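for the recovery benchmark. tokens below, seq after
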């Protein structure tokens, strides 16, 4: 089974890039299942029903979230009505969840979405490792052959810890949130596929999807200029995990960058 995981989609321009790039990419690599992080996909960040529809039309099977998942009130009821849109399970909310079991016919795929705690204190996430352990146990009790974990976290050390904590227990752990693709895609000793951060799907000539000068001005003078999303040529970042149908673990990992 081949799984494509796509890094944080930023703004409607990032959604349009996903619509343009994803279908051909899925055909090229014969992708069976696609997970896309969409928590920044709406104009001004967050996720809306409209931006979610764009990502599904691009080819996402599951949309994962992060610290901005609950920023837009219009998505609240959709999180309950469409279980294919996840938000971090360890964030306290009455809307939605961070777990889904997908029936693929011969096999089932569980997708888990969690938030880190380090440098994300305002999110108020509960212990991510404890949440991961509980959800993995649930997935195994429901006979999931493949288990995928989107860990939306700031600190690379926290993401590495999650990877090693779940090594051999899940198919793949992929980090999101920092919008910078890391070059450490690998198979951990126990057979779990891993990458610290998938990267970003959005405007290349930007700082994490935001207009460059705004970030520079804030860092130089300590100002509070409002973030504005950048415009221009886009890229798609992600990672392909080829999974073993017998063991549920990873056979190969390939980092993806497309314009």
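predicted aa per position
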């Amino acid at each position: 089974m081949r799984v494509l995981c796509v890094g944080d989609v930023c703004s409607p321009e990032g959604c349009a890039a996903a619509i343009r790039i994803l279908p051909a990419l899925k055909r090229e690599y014969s992708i069976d299942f696609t997970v896309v992080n969409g928590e920044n996909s709406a104009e001004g960040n967050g996720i809306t029903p409209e931006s979610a529809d764009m990502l599904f039309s691009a080819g996402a099977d599951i949309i994962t979230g992060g610290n901005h998942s609950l920023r837009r009130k219009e998505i609240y009821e959709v999180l309950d009505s469409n279980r294919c849109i996840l938000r971090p399970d360890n964030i306290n909310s009455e809307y939605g969840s961070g777990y889904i079991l997908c029936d693929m016919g011969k096999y089932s795929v569980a997708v888990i979405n969690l938030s880190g705690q380090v440098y994300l204190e305002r999110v108020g996430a509960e212990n991510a490792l404890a949440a991961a352990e509980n959800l993995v146990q649930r997935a195994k009790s429901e006979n999931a052959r493949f288990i995928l974990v989107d860990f939306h976290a700031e600190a690379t050390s926290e993401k590495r810890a999650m990877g090693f904590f779940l090594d051999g227990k899940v198919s793949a752990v992929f980090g999101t949130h920092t919008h910078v693709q890391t070059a450490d895609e690998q198979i951990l000793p126990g057979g779990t596929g891993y990458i610290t951060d998938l990267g970003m799907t959005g405007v290349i000539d930007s700082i994490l999807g935001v207009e460059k000068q705004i970030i520079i001005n804030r860092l130089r003078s300590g100002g509070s200029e409002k973030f504005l999303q950048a415009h221009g040529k886009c890229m798609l970042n992600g990672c392909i995990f080829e999974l073993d149908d017998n063991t549920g673990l990873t056979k190969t990992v390939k980092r993806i960058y497309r314009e």
